[in-house]
Amino acid sequence: MAATRKILHIDMDAFYASVEQRDDPGLRGKPVVVAWRGARSVVCAASYEARVFGVRSAMPAVRAERLCPQAVFVPPDFVRYKAVSRQVRDIFARHTDLVEPLSLDEAYLDVTANLSGLPSATATAEAIRSAIREETSLTASAGVAPNKFLAKIASDWNKPDGICVVRPHQVEAFLTPLPVGRLPGVGKVMESKLAELGIATVGDLRGIPPQGLEQRFGRWGRRLHELSLGIDDNPVRPERPTVQISSEDTFEHDLPLEELEPHIRRLAEKTWAGYQREKDRVARTVVLKLKTSDFRNLTRSLTPATHPGSLEVLCEIACKLRERVEMPASTRYRLVGVGLSGFIDQHDLQAQSDLFERA
């Protein structure tokens, strides 16, 4: 029988806002909103003082300002946030090689066999939280559980600066009263479909035979039943290969298609700069993303015979992809993005080239 995994989910508390409050004592205790001001801006982070007023990440900045007129708006500084994130990841690395970052402020860690010799996953989580506090003057919350999705739910349980431990024998009792929306992959649409069946909690879901769920929702129904039992065999993956590198921008005023070229070129430069950090992976596809003034998303892509090998080629292809946008000339666009995708390993690309040369 396989040993039970010991998984941590470490989540920095109000990360961007907390960095700002740490670095500027004048912001401490105040409702801080990390966002650019403006009609098109969204909230990157909100301090706990701002959350009391209902301000949340991804909320339009103008709504945040209405909810909390006394909020202090601070423009984001991702260079600083990334530097702190690297500090935190260095702390993780002292305890395990199995770290799967999800973003700058959260990660999964498999500490089934930890490097620090601590006697338990709980002790490891506490050691990590203590080191983060001492070395960064910030706080983190932790979830400790036998698998990833339980650890992620648990890390949110006692925020901020808290820890929640779900031991194997506690899994079903922990899950039973939770709303089904807490399960990974259950969004608003699925939640409403389950509500039509009288399913509101994970306990309700567990009471439905798996065959019935599978008949109604296909393979996803079977997966829902497994989640209701706390079953999740997904391992912590320390290396997540790049899927796409992209940059996008929302305009202050909507623009017609023919005025997008300078913005496409500017964003292509940012994307290309990110791509230069990829050492062993090659992108083959150029992606142009657009959002119309009525919030319709459009994506156009091209995979040329030869992978884009320079910024100039990337700009040329991205701009030319506008010709594939079949919308009325009167259409206005509020957002544009430029991306590179279709990544493969460098040696695979070379193998393909060798194959074509021999053909």
TrEMBL record:
Keyword Disulfide bond appears in the UniProt entry: no
Catalytic EC class: transferase
Cofactor(s) this protein cannot do without: Mg(2+)
GO biological process assignments: DNA repair; DNA-templated DNA replication; error-prone translesion synthesis; SOS response
InterPro entries: DNA/RNA_pol_sf (IPR043502), DNA_pol_Y-fam_lit_finger_sf (IPR036775), DNA_pol_Y-fam_little_finger (IPR017961), DNA_polymerase-Y (IPR050116), DNApol_IV (IPR022880), IMS_HHH_1 (IPR053848), Rev_trsase/Diguanyl_cyclase (IPR043128), UmuC (IPR001126)
Catalyzed reactions per annotation: DNA(n) + a 2'-deoxyribonucleoside 5'-triphosphate = DNA(n+1) + diphosphate
Pfam families registered for this protein in UniProt: IMS, IMS_C, IMS_HHH_1
Entry binding sites for Mg(2+): 11, 105
Swiss-Prot/TrEMBL keywords: Cytoplasm, DNA damage, DNA repair, DNA replication, DNA-binding, DNA-directed DNA polymerase, Magnesium, Metal-binding, Mutator protein, Nucleotidyltransferase, Transferase
Compartment(s) where it occurs, according to its Swiss-Prot or TrEMBL record: Cytoplasm
EC annotation from Swiss-Prot or TrEMBL: 2.7.7.7
Keyword Nucleotidyltransferase: yes
One GO MF term attached to the UniProt entry: magnesium ion binding
Protein purpose: Poorly processive, error-prone DNA polymerase involved in untargeted mutagenesis. Copies undamaged DNA at stalled replication forks, which arise in vivo from mismatched or misaligned primer ends. These misaligned primers can be extended by PolIV. Exhibits no 3'-5' exonuclease (proofreading) activity. May be involved in translesional synthesis, in conjunction with the beta clamp from PolIII.
Quaternary state and interactors: Monomer.
Family note: Belongs to the DNA polymerase type-Y family.
Protein known as: DNA polymerase IV
Taxonomic lineage of the native organism: Bacteria, Pseudomonadati, Pseudomonadota, Gammaproteobacteria, Lysobacterales
